[in-house]
Amino acid sequence: MVGSNKHTRNLCCEGELEATVPTLPQEIILEVLLRLPVKSLCRFRCVSKSWRFIISSPQFAKTHLDVAFQNKTLFSRRRRIIFSALNLYSVEYESMCSVDDGDVVAVELDYPLKDNPNALGDVLGSKKNDLVYFKVSEDEDENPVMVKVDVQSSVNPRNWVEIWGSCNGLVCIAPDEDTLFLFNPSTGESKRILEESFSGPATCGVTAYGFGYDSTSDDYKVVRIDTDSSFSVYSSRTDSWRRIGTFPYDCSVYNSGMFLHGALHWVATSREDEDDKYVVSVFDLREELFWGMPAPDVDDSFEFAVGTLNGCLCILYSRDDLHDDFWVMREYGVGDSWARFSISLPYICMKPLCLAKNGEALLEVDGRLVQYNLEEDTYKVLGIQGIPVGVGFEADTYIESLTSPNGFFGREFQMYN
């Protein structure tokens, strides 16, 4: 059609072709833009001032996200898996559903502090002799045994990037120890979260974070649980931390809080129960209060993590031994609705990522990506091209969006005047 449509191209006097934009009602243009991928919208900001004004609007970003949540096809196209493997990588969700050879292609992401060397790599980089001696025997009656290791060849120059949660296209990451950023992998925007600063005594360290969205106040929040059982909340609207109180459960939680139904969830043990019975610790982001949800009857000698599968809360083993089961809460908040599932794939640490179109579950299992058919109890391990061989990974999901981490939250903005 290009070259034959006189409404889209006109012949100039100099004999060159000049492109013109068709005149369409603004409502039609808006409906088209709302269905386009983020990559295209970022390019189309340069089309005209009016398009830039529309696409850069916080209200447009919210509507663009809402349209995807309401349309299964658009949601599937915009869903991504983010991997941390001494770097950050992204994979299209739909490509995982369509691969026949078991391989998917990962795209390396640019993220804040990516090129900052880690402390060990920086120290070793200043040494002329990369051979380091380690003492492996502490027996005073024996001569110490020393081994010589070429450390430089085994040290990656980058820090491991922790992924502490994902919500509405934003991912909370820690590319360095206790250094948090809100990061949009689709647009490349990021915002460093200020370090916690209080006048009280210093805490002993962090055990876990959680990240989620309070829709009532239009606020993205990060929750921090410390080893001394204190917990704090960061608000993106105020760009500040607040010390809230004391974590009301045993503070031995190490995994990121799972965001679901406006709340963050961890598996913890009750301080009031003499038998150290497990509960699901729920932090309501709107009320900023903890409450306990019944957990399934599980062995208290293991550690557990919380995940989601098809919108349902899950409890899974997170370390210590091989296991072949997990639990799913069929009805949120109802203790009697916990159901135990057995699988033929033993795991030490497992995290459900999402369900594919064909109903198969995409799982992160001990640093591998697995496609699992829950009905037939069969699975296959998916290879990931682009991630270094032999490097394990952590994974999470996110949806492509225009959500900005830089100060758009809570603003009133009229984009159609």
TrEMBL record:
The UniProt entry, under CDD domains, shows: F-box_AtFBW1-like
State the superkingdom: Eukaryota
Database matches in Gene3D superfamilies: 1.20.1280.50
Q: Which residues form the F-box domain?
A: 18-72
Q: Which PROSITE patterns match?
A: FBOX (PS50181)
Q: What InterPro entries does the entry give?
A: F-box-assoc_dom_typ1 (IPR006527), F-box-assoc_interact_dom (IPR017451), F-box-like_dom_sf (IPR036047), F-box_dom (IPR001810), Gal_Oxase/kelch_b-propeller (IPR011043), SCF_F-box_component (IPR050796)
Q: What is this protein called?
A: F-box domain-containing protein
